């Protein structure tokens, strides 16, 4: 039997109400989306840093001419 721990209390998933199961599924979906968005944010921050470096190089090249 599968169990879930919520606020230091262990529950049998099969014994939860349909509403509680639905809330748990929704929470798992939200957790997955948060993780996906955090990965996307990290990728965008990396890209932004690369663009900033390229901009600095372009500005330095421009100031030489």
Structure description:
The chain has 65 residues and is of the alpha+beta class. The chain has one domain. It contains 1 helix and 2 strands. The chain is rod-shaped. The termini are far apart. The model has no long low-confidence stretch (mean pLDDT 96).
Quick overview:
The chain has one helix at residues 18-64; strands spanning 3-6, 9-12.
Q: What can be said about the biggest beta sheet? A: 2 strands, antiparallel
What is the average per-residue confidence, as pLDDT, rounded to a whole number? 96
In what range is the share of β-strand residues? 5-15%
What's the multimeric state? single chain
What distance lies between the first and last C-alpha atoms, to the nearest angstrom?
A: 72 Å
Helical proportion, percent range: over 70%
- What is the count of DSSP helices, taking H or I runs of 4+ residues? 1
Poorly predicted tracts of residues = none
Structural class: alpha+beta
| Helix and strand element order | EEH
Which strands sit side by side, in order, in the main sheet?
A: 1-2
């Amino acid at each position: 039997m599968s169990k879930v721990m919520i606020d230091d209390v262990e529950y049998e998933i099969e014994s939860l109400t349909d509403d509680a199961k639905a809330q748990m599924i929704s929470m798992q979906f939200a957790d997955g989306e948060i993780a996906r968005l955090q990965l996307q944010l990290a990728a965008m921050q990396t890209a932004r840093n690369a663009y900033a470096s390229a901009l600095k190089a372009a500005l330095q090249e421009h100031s030489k001419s």
